[in-house]
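Researcher: Structure for this, please.
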Amino acid sequence: MNKTKVIATVGPTTSKEILKSLIINGADVVRINMSYATFDFCRDIINKINEINAELHTYASVMLDTRGPLVRINHISNGGTFLKQNDKIRIFMDNVIGDSTKFSVDYNLVNEVEIGNFITINDGTVELQIIDKGYDYLLCKVLKEGYIKDNNSINIPDVKLNRPFLNSFDKETIKFAHQMNVDFLALSYVSDYEDVLEVNDLLINLKNEHMQIISIIENKAAIDDIDRILKVSDGIMIARGDLGSEVSIERIPGIQKRIIKKCHEKGVIGIVATELLSTLINSEKPTRAEVSDIANAVLDGTDAIVLCGETTMGKYPVETLKTLERVISIAEKDINYDNMIDEAMKEEDVDITSSLAYSVATCAERLKCKAIFAPTMSGYTAKKISKFRPFCPVIAVSPNIDTVKSLALNFGVVPLLINEMKTSDAIIEKSKKIAVDFLMLQPKDKIIITGGYPFKKVKHTNFMKIEEI
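Model: Predicted structure, token format:
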């Protein structure tokens, strides 16, 4: 039972059988990127997930990515083309069919860029430089050759376009996500905290208190405003692909470590994405560098890791997930849990729930407890305990299915749906039964049960009980 969660991205080739195998083998969240998906596809995938959850008694959650305010390439003949180094290419603002000499984009860039600006495509694998411009086109030189295709996003480093953060499609996506009771909304290409507040306001207007906001960090502006973005987000996803188009790739490891540390200290979900096992798109064996990359993310205290192309277009999606789970399992044995607790306490509020969560985590380690049980209606206590990174699992039991699914990305939390417990004694007995049946604990094994007493009369966690099986 791994503590670091896994997000599996799905695509058009993801059948119900593959989806089921992904969930059985450890996918905590199924992600759909709306840059490449339709509402009909999303509806079909979400319905399938609901069917699988009902069949398997699992609680896999759903994440939707917005398209974001990126500029994207319009249709290219045959779906894509190769741009050769030193060739000239025109980028038109009016829609034309693209080829190796020209393509068009979905936003008028002419008045917002300058001659000499660089343009990167496909996560920076292709690079152009603007050498001239007309009233409806840009003339560029290919500096780094490579393949481009329909719908590729383009980045213009150090240029902030005047495009609104929420376009009409993203607004419809958020309304659709609300209707489908999606659990996590990942916001593409956030630049500052005001972008997040705009989405939060939309969710308030929809009266949606369930959906959590994950801000995707993929540009320099977001890095500069990360502290304020953290304050208004439920989670942060570091998308190393597009980020590598905005900053030098040598900086990305340091940026990743710094942001994950901030997430841990603030109790915000920290997620790492892009190319963690990209070799497995076409191969069955990871490289040593990929294994080290995953292990370092785990050792830094990352809450979740994302599989992108590995599960959307890879030949071995389920095998890739199994490989990831094995690497995570070994890496978690080397986490310095004492240090994690100390780091989490540095910026923690001094209140009853926080103090008790700290005590629970430290006692669990000292007594080598096998599990922590946290009955919860909202998920707040389980999230607090997760922040302190206890070395044993946190079993968050709740009668509320939305609460159960909302905990899918928190480190070490195993959410379970139970019937409502009306007394503290009932909670304790239920926890002990789950410990024996679900965790297969043995006599003399210890568990910690934490909750509020008197039950239903307090708004915070105020007791901790240590039980021996």
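Researcher: Any notable elements?
Model: The first helix runs from residue 16 to 24. The two ends are 20 Å apart (CA to CA).
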